[in-house]
Structure formats: structure tokens, C-alpha cells
UniProtKB/TrEMBL annotation:
Residues 62-230 form the Nephrocystin 3-like N-terminal domain. Keywords: ANK repeat, Repeat. ANK repeats lie at residues 599-623, 633-655, 667-688, 701-723, 735-757, 769-801, 802-822. This is NACHT domain-containing protein. PROSITE patterns: ANK_REP_REGION, ANK_REPEAT. Residues 262-328 form the DUF7069 domain. It comes from the Eukaryota. Transmembrane segments: none annotated.
């Protein structure tokens, strides 16, 4: 007989069974879990979200109050039921104070003990603040820090199964949020505030998920959303299923009364700022009144306009009554005119433009040291010696003053990092794809003055010019992380510069692509820390891999390159990007089925593995390719595409009717097995649509596609396989495990439920170690799965080959909730043996 006794939360519990006893203290059993929690939270902490929130200004006292008293906001704040009242969309034009309002709501309005407030500020100038997965990572991090009891073993298991890929998957993170918000006994109301949705690059996916949530698919969740964005029609269209009922507040006001309230609050900002300027510049009372009257007289003013205009006034030299009168008579009336005036005051507009080229093109914000170095390199592009660069390099604090002198208030420095003043500053300055021909052709001032191609060319030349200096400058020059930046991003800027034939950028790029040069090993080693780059001694192969079309064209023109050269462990140049491939195919000297010396992959295999639809299509059109060549691990192009979930590529390959659809790799896995393993529903559908596909094919472990779908929790794929009515639902692999065993072992409640509902599974089946699905779920602490199995009358007393029961396994691994559940079940069995009852 097995028994378990809890002696208190700090002492542990004693377990006894036929083989003796095990004593585990709570402290001991929690050490392993604490480490898992630490690693999981570290993984979720993808950006310093609190620091980024605090970049936004605090509100001026008295402002934002019309919003917090707005009926739609107060209704949203009060509501607890799951309906559209739990979603609020706040829209506003640029400069109306969305982010200041959002910070105020997070810091002062919504925080209380009854709810967990989470937030994320989307921002286009940070790569880690542009995507929905990053937002969900930050939100989950905040939830688990505030409410650690919500971080279940089931969620922690995902760290082991998915690793770092978890924080890249929006859907997996969203599912975690859904499961956490469903824990009614534990969860306080969770409020998610998302600012600047228009700056989220994959907002479509996020809005679709929120829309489905409010269509009633998760009515038991204690979850509310407040989202801000610009009032773009395409964002409103994404909410089309909710559009007629979606509560929305426009920060510009929806009626005369609201407009007046907003105008009053902007007036408070003007009064506060004028008062501060008056104290700093010792203005007399009549001068202060004059300033305030002139500013409040401007119609349709926004918070951004007030800030820009007062910054101009605050930095005005010679603050006399006469100057004040003249300035206020010619105040900029729009944000754009304020931007023009700021930049027109530059001491050297040509230098200012170069600096703005660099700032706007940079992949991430530069530090003062980095921008100072980039500027010194640019000055010496024609003679980029280390001595010349060093002579023109300004120390950080001196460069801070130079930057202010050249760019004025248009740029700001926060924690020594350089940013444009506002998102609208970049939109004002940089030509976009939406800029009209008329706008571009009539550029006379600063509006649309920067072409992205030119900005990227400036920065690409700077980066490439620095690469040969990295080693020599180790101790002599302060440069922040510019070595890494230039090594990792010169290629990005090269591509975005769209350099045409004859451009000096192409010549400079060619010089650093030679693996036999001194410079190549230095930058490629830094590049390889974050990116793959092949080992080769061929310039052509490196340029082809990097997609440097202009450089490839230049090398081919010399006639002094081996088009089919491979280098140690590398592929032929034909294996890379489409534009490069067209150039190489044009030589008519390519070996179409050439294999690399490491994996034995052909160009078609490489293109399929990387999901390059256009390249696959081009190769298939040539018609000289072997359709199902196997690499060193037995993988064909179709297998590789299915393994990566590349639906379009799989479809192209299947349409040739020349693919071996049941080809097995060295592990015995077919394309269908690999697609099922990855959960690629669309690819599984395509493969199941082929009559010859073997649905019950077994790999070397004796597992069919159903096994892999169940093991990895892919509910939709399991359903697809069920619909074929050809799967063996209860077959065993070489370890004696069934799909039910694997789903239970990995905690996939939905898949376990699907399998149980078929009534074609043996719930007490044992694997080679004598463990049943219940034993496995108990061992890993999956409480929800244990409940399902007990509800289906799984045998609680079964013993494995070591004499352990589900209860003893749960106790050994410290899963207190599962131990309590199993004990309760045992008690009920002893009192109601043979009765029909529902213990759950």
C-alpha cells in the first residue's frame, strides 16, 4: 500500500511504498523548479520594457483627466464580464499624447491589488519593440513576476520542448496567455495595455487573435485589453468583425464638449511650460502673459506642437521683449513647420543632413560614441586611415554638444543613446514608398529630404570602411559596439542602398568579401556570432551567399572565377538567392545538381530547406534538376520543405508529380511524419491530398505521423489524421508507448482529450518501463491531464517496473497539487468502490 503525508509547507512530505521510503523536503524539491522558473523568466525578458515605458514623459498635473472620466473608459474599467466592454481602442493622430496617456494609466490609474496590469509600448526605432511575439513575451514576464503561482509546470515544460523558439512564436505565447487567464482560482483580472499598435509590424496577427478572443471563444478568461494607435483605416478594417460594437475613444475628441476639455488640458501644459521658461529666463509677468496668449490662440494645437514650439522659444537667443514679440508673431502653426524651423537653425545644414542619414538608417539607436565614430569615418571616406579617423573623433561629451548644434531639438539623447524626437520626425524627414512624385520632386526644405537608399548607402560605406580598422583600433578608439554593428549590418545597408552598376559601394563591398584577405576573418567572425556564413575560400561563393548581386556581376565580368567552386564544406554558388542565381545561370556553366561536401545537398535541396519559393520555381522551370536527390541524412527536397513547414514550396514540388512522397530519411521519417511533428497543418493537408501517401508509415522508433503530432501537442494535425480513418490510434512504438502515452507524458490536455473521446485507446496501456499514461502525467506534474485520465477511470494503483505508482512518482518529483488530487481520488475509491460517480 502507498501513503503520503504532508507535514507542513516548510517541512516536506514522507512517502512510503513497498520498496521502502523516500523523504523529500519542500526546499529540496523546489530547487530544480526554481531554476526552471529563473530560466523561463529570463527567456521571456526579451527587452527592457519598463525603461522603454519611462522614455515617455509624465503627464502635466490636470491633464488626461477628461479621458479617465470618459464614460467608455469608466465602463471598460468597471466591467468584469467577458464581452466587448473588456476591449477599448484609443485612437489619435500623431502628437495627441497617446504614449503619455498610456504611461499615466499604467503608473497611476490602473494599479491596484485586484488586478495585474501589463503593458508594452511598440516602437519602430527598436528591433525588439516591433513585433507581437515580443509584446506577449513582455506581458507574460510581467504576469509571472507579479503572480508567480500562475507559472505552472505545464507552462515550464514548454521551455524544455521549445527552448528559445518559444519567444519567437506568437501562437504559442498567445496560448500560454489564454491558459494563464483561465486559472480562475488564482488569477486576478489581467489588464493588457498595448501602446502604438500602428508601429507593430505583425499587428494583423495580434488583432486577429484579440478579435477571436472577443468573439466568445474564451469566455472564462479574466482578461481585458486597452490598445492605442493612430486612426488608420486598415487597422479599423482588421477589427471589422467587432467594428459595429467596438468601444473607441478618439483623443482628438468626438464632439464640441470633448474638444473643449482637451483644449483646456493642453492649455494647462502651455501654462506650466511658460511658467518654467519664465523662471529659467527671468521673464517679466507681461512677457509670460504674451507668450501664453499667443500660444493658446492657435487652433487645432496638439501636445506635440506645444512641446516643439516651446522648445524653439526656450532655446531662443536674446530673450528680450522685442524678440519675444517678433517670435510669437511668427509662431509655427503646424508640427511640420516647427520641424522646419528647428532644422533651419542648424549651424551646418550639410553636416546635419549626413548625421540624420545615419540616425534614420541605423538598425538600432546608436550611442554617442558610435555616432561620433561614424561621423569621423564619413569625414575620411576618401582617406580612411586610422590616424585620420582618430584625429577627427570627438569625445562623447563634446560630440553631444556638436550634435545639438547641428540637429537642434530634432534629436534627443537618452541614456547616451540617440533618437529622433518623435515618430513623426522620421515621417517628416524620410521619403516613404507612399510619397507622391509631386512631393519628391518639390523637396525644397527638410520635408522628405532623405531618401532611404541614400541614407543606407551613407551608412554602408561607413561600416565597410571601418571593417579593416577593427583589429588595429582595439585600444586606441572609444567606439561602443560599432565593431559588431558594422560587421553584422553592413550587408543589410548594402542591400537597402540598392546600389547600381558602377557605384563605389560595390567596389568597396568586393574588397571585404575575399576570404583570403586580412579583413574578411575579422568581420566574418563577428558576423558568425549572430548569423550563418559558409566556410569557403571563394569570393564568388561568399558574395553569392550574401546576395551581393552587384559584386557577383563584377566578379563574373573579370572571367577569373570558378563558377562551380565549393571550398571546404561549402555549397556551390548556385545554392543561394534568386537574383544571384539568375546571373549565374546566365553563364550556362553551372552544375545544376552539384552537391555540397558537408550535407550532400543540391541547390534544389537548399532552396527547399530555406523555403525560397521563387528559387525553387526558377530551378524547376529549368528542368535539369534531379527531383528527389537524398542528402547525407536521406532528406529529399520535399522532405526538407515539409520539415520546415513551407506550404508553397511543398505545393510546387508536388505539382511536378516526380516526388517520392513516402521517401524515408535515415531515421525512417517521411515528409508526412516531419510535417506532423512540426504541427504544419497546411502542409499535412497537402500531403494527405496525395492518394499514395502512407499515413501509417513507421520510422525506426516504430512511430507513425500520429505519434509525432500527439507527442508535440498538435491538436489540429491529430484531427486531420483522424479524419482519414486510416490511422491506428492505439499502436505501440518500440518503447511500448502509444500516442496517448506520449501526449500525457508531455502534458497536452487537448490531444489527450481527443484520443480519449475516440474510445479506441487502452487507458492503462504500459510502456517498456511499466508506466501508464497516468503514471507519466503524474511524474511530470500535469494536473489537468491527470484529471482527464482519472475522469476516464484510469487505474490509480498500477505499478511500474520499479514498483512505483502514479502517486509515488508525483511525490518523488514534488508535484504537490497532483499528489493531493490522487490522494483525494484514493479516498473516494475506498469509500465508494464500485459506485458510479463523478469525482471531478
Amino acid at each position: 500500500m502507498t501513503s503520503a503525508k504532508f507535514e507542513g509547507p516548510n517541512s516536506g512530505f514522507q512517502l512510503a511504498n513497498n520498496n521502502g521510503s523516500v523523504h523529500i523536503t519542500v526546499e529540496q524539491s523546489s530547487i530544480y523548479r526554481d531554476e526552471r522558473v529563473r530560466r523561463f523568466l529570463s527567456l521571456l525578458n526579451t527587452c527592457p520594457y519598463e525603461d522603454r515605458k519611462n522614455r515617455n514623459n509624465r503627464r502635466v498635473p490636470g491633464t488626461c483627466e477628461w479621458f479617465t472620466k470618459h464614460p467608455k473608459f469608466t465602463n471598460w474599467q468597471r466591467c468584469t464580464s467577458h464581452d466587448l466592454a473588456g476591449l477599448l481602442w484609443v485612437s489619435a493622430d500623431p502628437g495627441c499624447g497617446k504614449s503619455v496617456l498610456t504611461r499615466y494609466l499604467v503608473d497611476e490609474v490602473l494599479c491596484n491589488e485586484k488586478q495585474t496590469v501589463c503593458y508594452f509600448f511598440f516602437k519602430d526605432d527598436f528591433p525588439d519593440q516591433r513585433n507581437a511575439a515580443g509584446a506577449l513575451s513582455a506581458i507574460l514576464h510581467q504576469i509571472f513576476v507579479a503572480r508567480p503561482q500562475l507559472l505552472s509546470d505545464t507552462v515550464l515544460k514548454k521551455l524544455e520542448t521549445d527552448g528559445e523558439k518559444l519567444v519567437q512564436s506568437f501562437h504559442k505565447l498567445w496560448n500560454i496567455l489564454m491558459s494563464v487567464s483561465a486559472q480562475e482560482e488564482e488569477a486576478r483580472e489581467i489588464i493588457c495595455i498595448l501602446d502604438a499598435l500602428d508601429e507593430c509590424r505583425d499587428r494583423d496577427e495580434l488583432i486577429k487573435a484579440v478579435t477571436m478572443f472577443y468573439q466568445g471563444l474564451h469566455r472564462d478568461r479574466k482578461l481585458k485589453f486597452l490598445m492605442t494607435s493612430r486612426p488608420y483605416p486598415h487597422i479599423e478594417r482588421l477589427f471589422w468583425k467587432l467594428r459595429t460594437k467596438l468601444p473607441t475613444i478618439h483623443l482628438s475628441g468626438d464632439g464640441e464638449e470633448e474638444v473643449q476639455k482637451i483644449s483646456h488640458e493642453i492649455g494647462l501644459v502651455i501654462s506650466k511650460r511658460v511658467s518654467d521658461i519664465g523662471k529659467q529666463r527671468s521673464l517679466e509677468e507681461d512677457e509670460r502673459k504674451l507668450l501664453e496668449q499667443q500660444l493658446t490662440a492657435v487652433e487645432n494645437r496638439t501636445y506635440l506642437w506645444v512641446s516643439l514650439t516651446l522648445d524653439v522659444l526656450e532655446n531662443m537667443p536674446g530673450f528680450t521683449k522685442g524678440n519675444t514679440r517678433r517670435v510669437v508673431q511668427h509662431l509655427p502653426t503646424t508640427v511640420e513647420s516647427a520641424y522646419e524651423r528647428i532644422l533651419d537653425r542648424s549651424s551646418d545644414k550639410k553636416k546635419a543632413k549626413v548625421l540624420l542619414h545615419i540616425i534614420t538608417a541605423a538598425v538600432r539607436p546608436f550611442s554617442l560614441e558610435e555616432l561620433s565614430l561614424a561621423w569621423a569615418i564619413h569625414i575620411n571616406l576618401n582617406d580612411p586611415t586610422l590616424t585620420a579617423i582618430s584625429d577627427d573623433l570627438e569625445p562623447k561629451e563634446r560630440f553631444r554638444k556638436t550634435l545639438r548644434d547641428l540637429c537642434g531639438l530634432f534629436v534627443v539623447v537618452i541614456d547616451d543613446k540617440i533618437y529622433l524626437l518623435h515618430q513623426t520626425a522620421k515621417e517628416f524627414l524620410v521619403q516613404s514608398n507612399k510619397s507622391t512624385v509631386n512631393q519628391v520632386s518639390q523637396v525644397t526644405g527638410w520635408k522628405c529630404a532623405l531618401k532611404p537608399e541614400e541614407s543606407n548607402e551613407v551608412l554602408a560605406l561607413i561600416c565597410i570602411s571601418w571593417l579593416p580598422k577593427i583589429n588595429a583600433a582595439q585600444r586606441d578608439i572609444e567606439r561602443g559596439e560599432f565593431d559588431e554593428y558594422s560587421s553584422c549590418h553592413w550587408i543589410t545597408h548594402y542591400h537597402q542602398a540598392n546600389a547600381q552598376d558602377g557605384n563605389v559601394l560595390i567596389m568597396r563591398a568586393q574588397s571585404v568579401c575575399d576570404p583570403n584577405s586580412d579583413v574578411y576573418p575579422v568581420w566574418s567572425e563577428l558576423y558568425a556570432n549572430e548569423n550563418y556564413i559558409p566556410r569557403s575560400t571563394s569570393r564568388l561563393l561568399i558574395a553569392s551567399f550574401l546576395g551581393l548581386t552587384g559584386v557577383v556581376k563584377l566578379l563574373l565580368a573579370t572571367g577569373n572565377v570558378n563558377i562551380n567552386s565549393k571550398g571546404s564544406g561549402s555549397r556551390a554558388p548556385l545554392s543561394w538567392k534568386k537574383p544571384v542565381m539568375k546571373l549565374l545561370l546566365g553563364t550556362k556553366k553551372m552544375e545544376m545538381n552539384s552537391r555540397d561536401s558537408e550535407e550532400g545537398l543540391t541547390p534544389l535541396s537548399w532552396a527547399a530547406w530555406n523555403g525560397h519559393e521563387a528559387v525553387v520555381k526558377l530551378l524547376l522551370e529549368i528542368g535539369k534538376m534531379k527531383m528527389s536527390p537524398k542528402d547525407s541524412e536521406g532528406l529529399t527536397p520535399l522532405t526538407l520543405a515539409a520539415m520546415g513547414g513551407y506550404e508553397a514550396v511543398v505545393k510546387l514540388l508536388l505539382e511536378t508529380n516526380k516526388m517520392n512522397i513516402n521517401s524515408k530519411d535515415s531515421e525512417g521519417l517521411t515528409p508526412l511524419s516531419l510535417a506532423a511533428m512540426g504541427g504544419y497543418e497546411a502542409v499535412v493537408k497537402l500531403l494527405l491530398g496525395i492518394q499514395k501517401v502512407d499515413i501509417i508509415s513507421k520510422d525506426r522508433y516504430g512511430r507513425t505521423p500520429l505519434f509525432w503530432a500527439a507527442k508535440n501537442g498538435h491538436e489540429a494535425v491529430v484531427k486531420l489524421l483522424f479524419r482519414t480513418q486510416k490511422v491506428d490510434i492505439d499502436s505501440k512504438d518500440k518503447r511500448g508507448q502509444t500516442p496517448l502515452s506520449l501526449a500525457a507524458e508531455n502534458g497536452y490536455e487537448a490531444v489527450v482529450k481527443l484520443l480519449l473521446e475516440t474510445k479506441r485507446v487502452d487507458i492503462n496501456t504500459k510502456d517498456s518501463e511499466g508506466r501508464t499514461p497516468l503514471s507519466l502525467a503524474a511524474k511530470y506534474g500535469y494536473e489537468a491531464v491527470v484529471k482527464l485520465l482519472l475522469g476516464a477511470k484510469a487505474d490509480i494503483s498500477t505499478k511500474d517496473s520499479k514498483g512505483q505508482t502514479p502517486l509515488s512518482l508525483a511525490a518523488e518529483y514534488g508535484h504537490e497539487a497532483v499528489v493531493n488530487l490522487l490522494q483525494s481520488y484514493q479516498c473516494l475509491l475506498s469509500y465508494r468502490s464500485g459506485s458510479s460517480y463523478d469525482i471531478l
